[in-house]
Amino acid sequence: MTTSFEEFTPTGEVEGLAITALLNHATASRRLGLLLVRLGGHSIGVAVDGEVVASTTDSRQVHGRNKAGGWSQQRFARRREGQARVALQAAADDAVRVLVPRLDELDAVVLGGDRQALDALRADRRLAAVFARASNRVLDVPEPRRSVLEEAAERARAVEITVRDLNPDPEDLEDPQAPLPEDPPPEYRP
């Protein structure tokens, strides 16, 4: 079995079952930056071992889309774009204030929220170093609030494990060619 550990440590492969190495990796102390952004709000913080130690959360009004036609639709769309621009500028300003001064202390930055909003923030040159330190995954989060930030701090430490047996024992495999039973056993019936 080959084990690969990525994200926060250099990628390495170990032959055999590497439980100790996996546990050491999963339980290592980490200081993470969290950048959660949706169009109407953001929550930004620093977490140590799943506990938020510094943060800021803010929300701005951004109207939803309108299906009306004509001049009103265009006026409404311009107003919505302006509201979104102000909300994203506030998120960028808070990220610069909370994350940038602490970048040297962070092991990684974990992103969450709306990918389009994150892409808009990525265009801000002041945040280039923040996004350079960001991990590949983007957490799916609801409207960013302090409680959502605390939950994201815990989720960011989660480890997903996939076990693959390269040489499975033939006796352990079910026959993929075997026909399915006509009736499922009683414990599987609705």
UniProtKB/TrEMBL annotation:
SUPFAM superfamilies membership: Translational machinery components (SSF53137)
The Actinobacteria/chloroflexi VLRF1 release factor domain, residue ranges: 30-162
Record region (Disordered): 160-190
InterPro entries linked: eFR1_2_sf, VLRF1
Protein's UniProt name: Actinobacteria/chloroflexi VLRF1 release factor domain-containing protein
Organism lineage string: Bacteria, Bacillati, Actinomycetota, Actinomycetes, Pseudonocardiales
